[in-house]
Design a protein that fits this description.
This protein starts with 6 loop residues before the first helix and ends with a strand. Helices cover 36% and strands 21% of the residues.
């Protein structure tokens, strides 16, 4: 079927204001898709998330836009006419994972006429990576960064009409585009961005360079989005930011994070409220008090330590000390004794001595974490720490193994503490490993498996915890 498109005229007629401009291009893409369907085009799309919760949220927006453009979601990339990746670049292995996926899609691209493979996310904010993708993967037709995810429809339209590769990566923007479509994976829970970017510039972290400087959303827009989620049947909301505690610091006279958390927690109908991620340097007494007095705020605090050595923390540019961190943990434990505490720890940061490492071990033993996500330092080009003198690999590996053992011993002290109790569980899915069981989470984020079927998904159930398996429980409906 022949059809003629005056691309220049389409662009000239597009609104300048957002999000009207993007909705205009969604309509134009839909028109193209409907025409191509008459020629056998299936218009199936897939978004693969390869990063953090922020990337997952971007993935929901991308899917929502694609559906508005006339595409149907598929879980099978061999059935997809569009495959988009939202990437991570925190560690080198994340980049390698993407390259592997691209290699496997080459054959599919050659067999599927009109297929578009696209990449967005943090990895695309690195100039060298974009150049490498464009050079070595000519079948990748769409490349854009974290700051213009909202422009998917406009970029996709250009790619569809011209048939050429479309690349648009911008360094940063103060623009926050509201009211775009989104496709949530779960009806009973959802996430809400409260800010974008990061101002901390930890010396090991690439995020501020690829996500940009911190930009807080307007509190009214956040509350409105939360209200819409609740009206749509959402029981649990997660507030997202690279550092939620510093929310509003970039807007003079803005609502603070504790004030925002309180306002969201008090919205009628919200059963559970979560947030991530926190930086200990901004974790205030006011925030602890809001959590203590609002039982629907999850009884779980993820408090990244990174290192227990004050000297290493200074080299990391973390702006807290071993002593101030431990004092914060004591305050949290005293105010919210039923809260679980988890953390992130980096082993082998440049310059780490045995004495520094022992400080980390001391903190782990005193804090008695319920879980600790331990990582071997990953050198990221473009960060200050990449130029520091590195710790020998064999020493790092030996320390990592020692730390893991201490973490396991420490967390074991918390096992069984809720055994025998009847507690409320939000059912999230059927258990993939045990037929006839479902899986859900307690308010403190601990997993529970108990007999049930898919009809329970998205409901709150009172469950008696009958057996402890360390990091999770088995139970039965009370």
């Amino acid at each position: 079927m022949d059809y003629i498109i005056d691309y220049k005229e389409i662009i000239e007629q597009a609104p300048l204001d957002e999000p009207a401009r993007q909705y205009y291009f969604m309509d134009r893409v839909r028109e193209l898709v409907e025409i191509r369907k008459l020629e056998g085009y299936k218009a199936h799309c897939m978004v693969e998330v390869m990063g953090c919760q922020m990337s997952a949220k971007d993935g929901e927006k991308l899917l929502g836009i694609l559906e508005k453009c006339g595409y149907t979601v598929t879980e099978d990339d061999w059935d997809a006419d569009i495959v988009l990746f939202t990437t991570c670049t925190v560690r080198e292995n994340a980049n390698q994972k993407l390259y592997g996926r691209l290699g496997r899609l080459k054959h599919q691209y050659e067999k599927r006429d009109g297929m578009i493979i696209g990449i967005t996310g943090c990895m695309m904010q690195e100039k060298d990576e974009v150049e490498g993708i464009c050079k070595h993967y000519p079948y990748v037709k769409l490349v854009f960064g974290t700051h213009n995810v909202y422009k998917l429809a406009e970029l996709l339209y250009k790619s569809l009409v011209t048939g050429k590769r479309t690349v648009e990566v911008i360094d940063d923007t103060k623009l926050i585009v509201e009211d775009l479509p989104s496709d949530r994976k779960f009806k009973f829970k959802g996430s809400v961005n409260i800010s974008y970017g990061c101002n901390n510039f930890c010396t090991y972290c690439i995020v501020p360079y690829v996500r940009g400087r911190e930009k807080s959303r307007n509190a009214t827009d956040i509350l409105r989005e939360c209200e819409k989620l609740i009206e749509d049947g959402c029981l649990e909301i997660m507030l997202l930011g690279q550092n939620v505690n510093s929310y509003g610091n970039d807007i003079p006279g803005s609502t603070t994070f504790p004030e925002l958390l309180k306002a969201v927690a008090e919205l009628p109908g919200l059963k559970r409220l979560r947030y991530m991620t926190s930086n200990p340097k901004d974790f205030s007494d006011e925030l602890i008090e809001v959590m203590r007095t609002h039982p629907n705020i999850e009884r779980h605090v993820h408090l990244p330590l990174q290192s227990g050595s004050s000297a290493i923390l200074k080299r990391m540019n973390r702006h807290y000390t071993k002593e101030s961190y431990l004092e914060l943990v004591r305050k949290i434990r005293k105010a919210i004794p039923d809260a679980t505490l988890t953390t992130d720890i980096i082993v082998g940061f440049p310059g780490e001595t045995e004495e520094d490492f022992q400080d980390t071990i001391d903190v782990v033993k005193e804090c008695r974490y319920d879980a600790a996500y331990t990582f071997i330092y990953s050198k990221r080009t473009g960060t200050p720490a990449a130029k520091f003198e590195q710790v020998p690999e064999d020493i790092v590996k030996e320390r990592f193994d020692r730390l893991l053992k201490v973490v396991q011993e420490s967390s074991a002290e918390n096992e069984n503490r809720d055994l025998g109790k009847v507690m409320e569980v939000l059912v999230e899915d059927v258990n993939r490993n045990q037929e006839g069981y479902v899986t859900g989470r307690l308010s403190n984020s601990v997993l529970v498996h108990f007999p049930g079927d898919k009809s329970l998904i998205g409901t709150m159930q009172m469950v008696k915890l009958t057996e402890s398996k360390g990091f999770y429980y088995f139970g039965e409906i009370a």
